[in-house]
Amino acid sequence: MIDRARALALLHARIRACTKCVDAGYLDRAQPIVAGSIRDRIAIIGQAPGEVELTTGKPFSGRAGAELRRWLAEAGIDEDHLPYRTAITKCFPGKSPTGSGDRRPSPPEIALCAPWLENELALLKPRVILLVGGLAIERFWGKVSLESAVGTARVQDGVTYVPLPHPSGASRWLNDPAHRVLLHKGLGHLRRAARALDSPSRGRTMQIRR
Questions:
Q1: Superfamily in which the 2-209 domain is placed by CATH
Q2: pTM (2 decimals)?
């Protein structure tokens, strides 16, 4: 555990020093953000940090993060037990050109940042992974609609994947009552997966739960 903890701390230091997207001309400023402990058995993967995170230096610390923490509380995960928090890309990508929300990171940015996430997950070995938003769902679940993913859970190689919509106020997806039902169903999957963490390990089969 000590060696893995040291390795994760060193990885975090390397991530925070990364300037690959600035060097490639995709970003004007690099400020990679990640947080968590080697002891975390649940990991949250989002799209990218928001503007507020540039000030706090912590993932999911803006209004979207506050909403996500309310969702976690519904699933029985309180502020003192926040999961590991990371994202597909680690830097704030800037505002969307449309003026609605943040810009979606481009495929080249995603590719440049992918090794960091792969290394994080290889060290952390989480038992439960929350995929927050379309970009994270696409990376680990496939290119599907939110309606077909949210409200389900997938178990693969002993890891439970739970897709959730993005909690950003810029998203209108949750304005539909049927989508709210799917969200609460997904949080139910998370609650059960979190409670089962101390149960015997599961097999290496894939299951879809609805």
A1: Uracil-DNA glycosylase-like domain (3.40.470.10)
A2: 0.91
